[in-house]
C-alpha cells in the first residue's frame, strides 16, 4: 500500500484481478538487465551473484527500468536459483548461465539438501524489496518471484542448462518416488521464500516454470502441476495475486489453469485470443510479444502491439514479452513499446483503437 499522500499506479494489480483499468499495464521480463547501459555500468564492477545479494545495488537496478521506461511494475532483481543455493548446493552464476559444480544426482544428494529459513538464507532479497519500495515511494507495485520446483530441479540435476533434459527426465521416469521427494523439498523451500517477499512488500508474485514445456502434458500433470497448485494456493492465502508462466507451454494451458493462478503467462507461440479461449474469461493473461519483435521498425512494432491488445481485450490483460528481453535490445525500443501499449490500451477502452 502506498504511504499517505502518495498514489500507487495499481493497474497491474487491477488487471491481475480482472478489474477495469484506464489502460493496459505493461512490464517486461528481465527488464532490469544487460540491455540497459546504467545496469552495465553497475554490473561491470560486481559479479552477478554478488549483485543479487547486495540489497542497495539490487534495489538500484530494480528501479532503473521503471525510471527509464515507465513500466507499471518493478520486478525485484534476483535469480530463480537464489533459494536453491540456500539449500546447501554450490551455485555459480555468470554471463554464460548457471552452473552447479556438484549436481544433484542421487538420493543421498537430495537428502543432504536443507529446507532453509528464508530470512537466514535469503533475507537480502526481502531487504532489496523494502529498499526498492522506498526508492520508488511505492509508486508502482513490486513483483516478487521464484522458480517452479521442476525447473529448479532440472538445473540442479543437469548441472546447468540442457538441450535434452535427459538426466532430470530419467530421474522422473526411473525413480518417480525420489523425484517427488525432491519436488516436495523444493516446494517446502519456495513457499516460505515467496511469503518472505510478500511480507517485505511484494504486491504480486510470479512463478517461473521455465522448463515445464519440456514435459509432455501427462508428465507435467504428474510432476509439476501438484507443486505449482500448492504454491499458488498458499501464496493466494496471503492476499496477493499469483502469475504462473512458462515457455513452450501452449499445449499445457488447460493444466496451468488448474493451478488456480490469477494470471497465466502466454509466450509468443500462441495468439493471445486463442490462449483466452482455452483459458476462459475467469483468469487474466499476460504477454505475449516475441522479444525479437523489439528489433522491428517502429511502425511494425506498433502494429504488433495493437494486434495483441485487440486479441487479449481490455480486461484482465497484462502486456509483456513472451519471454525475457534480450541483451542486444535498444532501450529506446523498449520505451517505445511501453508508450505504445499505454496509448493504444487507452484507445482500446475508449473504442477508438484503429483497425
TrEMBL record:
Enzyme Commission no: 4.1.1.37
Compartments where located: Cytoplasm, Cytosol
Pathway of action: Porphyrin-containing compound metabolism; protoporphyrin-IX biosynthesis; coproporphyrinogen-III from 5-aminolevulinate: step 4/4
TM regions (residue ranges): none
Binding site residues for substrate: 30-34, 79, 155, 210, 323
HAMAP family for the chain: URO_D (MF_00218)
Signal peptide (from-to): none
Superkingdom as given in the UniProt entry: Bacteria
Organism in which the protein naturally occurs: Stigmatella aurantiaca (strain DW4/3-1)
Keyword Cytoplasm listed: yes
InterPro entries in the cross-refs: UROD/MetE-like_sf (IPR038071), Uroporphyrinogen_deCO2ase_HemE (IPR006361), Uroporphyrinogen_deCOase (IPR000257)
Alphabetized PANTHER family for the sequence: METHYLTETRAHYDROFOLATE:HOMOCYSTEINE METHYLTRANSFERASE RELATED, UROPORPHYRINOGEN DECARBOXYLASE
Catalytic activity: uroporphyrinogen III + 4 H(+) = coproporphyrinogen III + 4 CO2
Principal location: cytoplasm
UniProt protein name: Uroporphyrinogen decarboxylase
Site (Transition state stabilizer): 79
Domain Uroporphyrinogen decarboxylase (URO-D): 25-34, 143-159
Subunit note: Homodimer.
Amino acid at each position: 500500500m502506498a504511504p499517505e499522500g502518495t498514489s500507487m499506479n495499481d493497474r497491474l494489480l487491477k488487471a491481475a484481478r480482472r478489474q477495469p483499468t484506464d489502460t493496459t499495464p505493461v512490464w517486461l521480463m528481465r527488464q532490469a538487465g544487460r540491455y540497459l547501459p546504467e545496469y552495465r555500468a553497475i554490473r561491470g564492477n560486481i559479479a552477478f551473484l554478488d549483485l543479487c545479494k547486495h540489497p542497495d545495488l539490487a534495489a538500484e537496478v530494480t528501479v532503473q527500468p521503471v525510471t527509464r521506461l515507465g513500466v507499471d511494475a518493478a520486478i525485484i532483481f534476483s535469480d530463480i536459483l537464489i533459494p536453491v543455493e540456500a539449500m546447501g548446493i554450490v551455485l555459480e552464476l555468470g554471463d554464460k548461465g548457471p552452473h552447479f559444480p556438484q549436481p544433484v544426482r542421487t538420493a543421498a544428494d537430495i537428502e543432504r539438501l536443507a529446507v532453509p529459513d528464508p530470512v537466514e538464507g535469503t533475507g537480502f532479497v526481502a531487504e532489496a524489496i523494502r529498499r526498492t519500495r522506498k526508492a520508488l515511494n511505492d509508486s508502482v507495485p513490486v513483483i516478487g518471484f521464484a522458480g517452479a520446483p521442476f525447473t529448479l530441479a532440472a538445473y540442479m540435476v543437469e548441472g546447468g542448462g540442457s538441450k535434452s533434459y535427459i538426466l532430470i527426465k530419467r530421474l522422473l521416469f526411473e525413480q518417480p518416488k525420489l523425484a517427488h521427494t525432491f519436488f516436495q523439498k523444493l516446494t517446502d523451500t519456495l513457499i516460505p521464500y515467496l511469503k518472505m517477499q510478500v511480507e517485505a512488500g511484494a504486491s504480486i508474485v510470479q512463478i517461473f516454470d521455465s522448463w515445464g514445456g519440456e514435459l509432455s502434458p501427462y508428465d507435467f500433470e504428474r510432476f509439476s502441476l501438484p507443486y505449482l497448485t500448492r504454491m499458488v494456493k498458499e501464496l493466494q492465502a496471503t492476499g496477493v495475486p499469483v502469475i504462473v508462466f512458462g515457455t513452450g507451454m501452449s499445449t499445457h494451458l488447460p493444466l496451468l489453469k488448474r493451478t488456480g493462478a490469477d494470471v497465466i503467462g502466454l509466450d509468443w507461440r500462441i495468439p493471445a485470443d486463442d490462449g483466452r479461449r482455452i483459458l476462459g474469461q475467469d483468469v487474466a493473461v499476460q504477454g505475449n510479444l516475441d522479444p525479437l519483435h523489439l528489433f522491428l521498425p517502429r511502425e511494425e512494432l506498433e502494429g504488433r502491439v495493437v494486434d495483441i491488445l485487440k486479441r487479449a481485450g481490455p480486461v484482465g490483460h497484462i502486456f509483456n514479452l513472451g519471454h525475457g528481453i534480450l541483451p542486444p535490445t535498444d532501450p529506446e525500443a523498449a520505451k517505445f513499446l511501453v508508450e505504445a501499449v499505454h496509448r493504444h490500451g487507452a484507445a482500446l477502452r475508449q473504442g477508438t483503437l484503429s483497425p
